[in-house]
Write a structure and sequence with these properties.
Order of helices and strands: HHHHHH
Structural class: mainly alpha
Number of strands: 0
Number of helices: 6
Mean pLDDT: 89
Length: 137
Amino acid sequence: ARVGPENIEDLVNLRVCDRIGTGRPKEHPFRLRKYMSMIDEAMRDPISVGMLKIHGARLMELGHQPGPKFGWVLHALLEEVLDEPSKNTEEYLEKRAGELFQLTEKELKELGEQGRDKKEEADKAEVAKLRKKHHVS
């Protein structure tokens, strides 16, 4: 049988109750906590450029040509939004994207890579927070 995301918590609680009922010394052993941490990691929304209020299709509507610059611009915008979530508005991102497309390819690539690094750091921090919540490393 398949277990959907809505039933996972009930399934874990069933396992805890089973451990209590069988007289096991620990209700939440490391292995169960680790499993719960892995479930939370898998079910969380990943940090990605998809979180932005602007997408590649909109950039094309604004007259920008598709290519590697798109990714760099979106990652640069993501970095700004991660630093200041209030900037995640369509108006701001359209204006800022226009400014970013004016940069040289080298400058834009550097900003895009910084944005990608920031995203990876934010992902790692979020996973570390989940693991700490479940007391696993």
